[in-house]
């Protein structure tokens, strides 16, 4: 294991992103010792620039009051536009295809209200079995809202017997199987439990060939893996911003709607006044006229304080660049797997259910233990390691490239080995 320790130190020395760790607050224990934080897949750490960004808008509120909405140089009424460029880079979209607004589930309901329009012939939704509740409950309730039975309308994708992840061929085969009755394919970019990164381009293509729409929940994908939503022809997508985007607990989510719908005023939607045509918005006239692009799905004016935090966090990701983040992420996760296999080569204690192919996963490895997984998790927590337990049997470990190090990965593996022994 000493060889791995030396390798970790060498990797850290070579790391082109190593200075970014200094831009984050790292949690500490009662003695002030930094904890090993591998839980960015649940809540990212706070960038040091966030406090100043929020304080700036608090100062504007203190000194300008309501005039802050239109006071130059950064009026609040257009504040959400300052987040468009980095969000477009992270999702592979055009700026008018992305917007920060609401939260994930609200955005999911808004866009399903537009893109899930069941008919007597086409009414089914394909989702994955065991979907995160954001998706599961939204899909179930949308189906019921249209007077349909979820048992009939929801098609759940399940892995093959004694397998953990979904094969792309099986997903495409299911789309083809239900092509005549399929209205929507709705999947995550990365499956929260297994950490599987789906082939979003192939799935979108198959859904459209079947005559269906496709929407993605990118909660675990945005800021984690590179995407090209525009080129992949995705109809819509939603996300939260507090995982790999590091914008703060429960912070403002976001949405993507493809450019081909940008001027379609006939689309059904649940409208709000901030989605009304900007140049006429304050005339308060009846008759909804949507803004161009995804902005036409906005409901309310921007949440300035949360968006100030998100803007500061996005600036850090922009400085690092998605290409460099992905490069380090692949290396970090690969090294984590290498360290685990070094002390458990025969998989006696630990089974990694995340795909072995690095291109099919992001920052996360999901570990299943042969016995007493919850007790292992509790021991790790007591040792100053912050990871994530998910019922029924998984510890999710997610070293994030912006602030985690290879030495931390090595230390984690050593503590894990000692815990198991």
Residue-averaged pLDDT: 96
Could you estimate the helical fraction of the residues in percent? 25-40%
Class derived from helix and strand content: alpha/beta
Q: What is the CATH topology descriptor of the largest domain?
A: Aspartate Aminotransferase, domain 2
How does the overall form come out from the CA principal axes?
Answer: globular
Number of helices: 12
What's the gyration radius in Å?
Answer: 22 Å
Strand order, main sheet: write it out: 2-8-7-6-5-3-4
How much beta, percentage-wise? 5-15%
Regions with little confidence, pLDDT below 50 for 5+ residues: none
Tally the beta strands.
Answer: 13
The biggest beta sheet reads: 7 strands, mixed
Total domains: 2
The CATH architecture category of the largest domain equals 3-Layer(aba) Sandwich
Superfamily (CATH H level) name of the largest domain: Type I PLP-dependent aspartate aminotransferase-like (Major domain)
Gap from first CA to last CA: 15 Å
CATH class of the largest domain: Alpha Beta
Q: H/E order of the elements?
A: HEHHEHEHHEHEHEEEHHEEHEEEH
What oligomeric state do these chains adopt? single chain
């Amino acid at each position: 294991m000493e060889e791995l320790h030396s390798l970790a130190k060498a990797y850290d020395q070579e790391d082109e992103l190593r200075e970014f760790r200094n831009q984050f607050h790292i949690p500490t224990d009662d003695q002030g010792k930094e904890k090993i934080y591998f839980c960015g897949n649940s809540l990212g750490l706070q960038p040091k620039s966030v406090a100043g960004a929020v304080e700036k808008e608090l100062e504007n509120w203190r000194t300008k009051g309501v005039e802050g909405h239109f006071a130059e140089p950064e009026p609040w009424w257009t504040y959400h536009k300052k987040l468009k460029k980095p969000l477009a880079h992270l999702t592979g979209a055009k700026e008018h295809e992305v917007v920060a607004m609401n939260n994930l589930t609200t955005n999911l309901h808004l866009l399903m209200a537009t893109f899930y329009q069941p008919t007597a012939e086409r009414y089914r939704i394909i989702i994955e079995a065991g979907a995160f509740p954001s998706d599961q409950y939204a899909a179930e309730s949308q189906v019921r809202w249209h007077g349909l039975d979820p048992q009939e309308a929801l098609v759940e994708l399940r892995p093959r017997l004694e397998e953990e992840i979904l094969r792309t061929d099986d997903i495409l085969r299911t789309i083809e199987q239900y092509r005549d009755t399929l209205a929507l394919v709705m999947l995550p970019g990365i499956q929260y439990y297994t950490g599987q990164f789906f082939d979003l381009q192939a799935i979108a293509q198959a859904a459209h060939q079947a005559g269906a729409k496709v929407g993605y929940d990118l909660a675990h994908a945005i800021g984690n893996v590179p995407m090209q939503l525009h080129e992949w022809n995705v109809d819509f997508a939603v996300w939260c911003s507090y995982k790999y985007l590091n914008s703060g607990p429960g912070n403002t989510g976001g949405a993507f709607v493809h450019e081909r719908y940008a001027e379609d005023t006939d689309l059904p939607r649940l409208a709000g006044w901030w989605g009304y045509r900007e140049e006429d918005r304050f005339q308060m006239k009846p008759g909804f006229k949507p803004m161009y692009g995804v902005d036409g799905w906005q409901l309310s004016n921007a949440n300035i304080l949360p968006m100030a935090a998100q803007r500061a966090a996005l600036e850090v990701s922009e400085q690092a660049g998605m290409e460099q983040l992905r490069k380090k992420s692949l290396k970090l996760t690969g090294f984590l797997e290498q360290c685990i296999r070094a002390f458990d080569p025969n998989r006696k204690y630990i089974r990694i259910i995340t795909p072995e192919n690095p291109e099919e996963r992001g920052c996360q490895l999901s570990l299943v233990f042969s016995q007493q997984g919850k007790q292992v998790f509790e021991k790790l927590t007591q040792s100053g390691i912050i990871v994530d337990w998910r019922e029924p049997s998984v510890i999710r470990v997610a070293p994030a490239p912006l602030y985690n190090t290879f030495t931390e990965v090595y230390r984690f593996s050593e503590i894990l080995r000692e815990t198991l022994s």
